[in-house]
Amino acid sequence: MDVAEQALQYGDLRHAVRMLGRLWQMDAVPRSAAVRRIPFASTPSAVEALVMLPDTEVTGRGQRRVTMADIELLDAHTDLYGRTDARHGGGQFRSVFAAFLSAHAVPLLEGGFNAGRGRLLYGSVADAVLALASMAYDDQLPGLAQRYDLQAMRLAQAIGDRGRLARGCIHQARLAAVRGEGREVLTHARSAVVAATGAPALVRAYVAVTEARAWAYNGDGGQCRAAVERARAAFDRAGRGSDPRWMAWLDRPELEGQAAWALAMAGLAEEGEEALKVAMGLPPERTRDSVELLITGAELARLRGDRVGWEESLARAKTATQYLKSRRLARRLADAVAGGPLHAF
Q1: How far apart are CA 119 and CA 107, in angstroms?
Q2: 230-267: buried (b, 16+ CB within 10 Å) or exposed (e) per residue?
Q3: Which residues of 196-225 are buried (b: 16+ CB within 10 A; e: fewer)?
Q4: Which residues contact 273 (CB under 8 A, 6 or more apart)?
Q5: pLDDT tens track for 110-153
Q6: Can you tell me the distance from the alpha carbon of 260 to that of 264, in angstroms, rounded to the nearest whole number?
Q7: pLDDT surpasses 80 at 262
Q8: How far apart are CA 81 and CA 73, in angstroms?
Q9: Tens digit of pLDDT for each residue in 66-98?
Q10: Contact in structure between 284 and 290 (CB atoms under 8 Å)
Q11: Most CB within 10 Å of its CB: which of 168, 237, 283, 328?
Q12: CA–CA gap between residue 116 and residue 29 (Å, rounded)
């Protein structure tokens, strides 16, 4: 529990590195009782991350020399577990990824590297940590996800990476939704917009569609619709510059799937249907995302008063979840079957 308390502090870079090592060590134990006991605290403020300047010192002075091959191996594992998570859910492979990071990333963070390589290393570790946070969120462990997100934001702030910092704010928004705190959801989503000012177009598309979801969560259909249009406009400009590799998963179906959720929650059924049609072009290997779309489709059918369409979408979603280990998605599906609203952000 000392780790749980200390990992809520937004400290210096060394503190973040130390906390990550301890969190990975705990999380590497499959079905760890200690991890499941980590409480979900009041969501830490992202203000400090947004306003602090990058660190002036990001070099490493350890004995082990960090190479580009080390960083490439880290990136490859993050990509691998990200794809696996999308196909099977985060409940069963997170401990394996955490064990890899404990064995591979800790020696790198304690190794020797110049400032340029340090920025690459910290960015790659932040991507891995945000992936772990997503897996923890999917496994209904918001306390663990919260602490992973905070350390990733500290690494992003250290290297002045506003895009990754925006991604951390987006994660904070969805954690605020776990508490049902609409104002906090919107605050964090708007913080992501601020953080992404000047970021590549693909990042701006991501924060804009998140803002749309936050407005929908707060019942403002007009602001939701406007944010969806901003997201689409930014996405149309993507690819012309240097979009970050960690955003490669955001394709048109993914964007429209998130837009469909927002429009459905805002009660804009017709516009949501149009977005959902595009979203259904999602690659079949992204099983979890496909189930999300089916739940959104069921909600849109409910808004139209289409009982048959609602039942068909939920039946298909039930079938698809047989191959998933996502506690979060199982809960969402149960709520949808019970006729509950789309409150899961």
Answers
A1: 16
A2: bbbebbeebeeeebbebbeebbbbbbbbbbbbbbbbbe
A3: beebbbbbbbbbbbbbbbbbbbbebbebbb
A4: 260, 300
A5: 999 999 999 999 999 999 999 999 999 999 999 999 999 999 99
A6: 6
A7: yes
A8: 12
A9: 999 999 999 999 999 999 998 888 778 999 999
A10: yes
A11: 168
A12: 34
Range 200-208 average pLDDT: 96
pTM greater than 0.90 (yes/no)? yes
**Which residues have a Cβ under 8 Å from the Cβ of 315 and sit 6 or more positions away?**
none
Structure-block tokens of residue 289: 């995302």
User: Would you state the structure tokens that stand for residue 288, as one six-digit string?
Assistant: 């979890």
> Which helix (H) or strand (E) element contains residue 61?
strand 60-61
Nearest to 157 by CA among 249, 263, 72, 50: 50
How many residues in total does the chain contain?
Answer: 345
